Amino acid sequence: MGKFKARLFGSAFSAAMLGAALATLTAAPANAAATCTSAVTIYSDGSHTVHAVVPGVSGGASWNPGECHLSEGSSGAGVKAMQRGLNSCYGAGITADGQFGPKTRAALIAVQKRIGVSADGIFGPNTRGAMNWMAFNDSGPMNCRYFKYA
């Protein structure tokens, strides 16, 4: 019985250590870029009369240039906000379905070339900071304009 308990304890201990090692290996680094899981509202020039809906991080500083990244394979409200921006301000003609696929990537690369940022097909702080977004006020859509980010 003693050998059985020792083997059982040894196996349980080994499994626990393996699990801890795997958790350590698969944990995201503290400085990893967040994905834009939400569509957030930002305001122009500090007023609350003109706004745009842009990709952002839910619960985070929504317009922080270092925290929002989208790439092929991303999905959700953040991708949909980006797709709508590409369509409304740059005539991309893509479906705003919240799925970042090859057509969205190609449209983003075309816009990146047009606005003079690295055409890598990744929506990050440089692209977001250079893009125009559809502006809205209480009456509805206005036009495309640059929204300064913090």
TrEMBL record:
User: Which InterPro entries does the annotation name?
Assistant: Peptidoglycan-bd-like, PGBD-like_sf, PGBDSf
Signal sequence coordinates: 1-32
Q: Which controlled-vocabulary keywords does the entry list? A: Signal
Limits of the Peptidoglycan binding-like domain: 75-131
Q: Which Pfam families match?
A: PG_binding_1
Query: So which domain of life are we looking at?
Result: Bacteria
* Ranges that cross the membrane: none
Name it.
Peptidoglycan-binding protein
Q: What is the lineage of its organism?
A: Bacteria, Bacillati, Actinomycetota, Actinomycetes, Pseudonocardiales
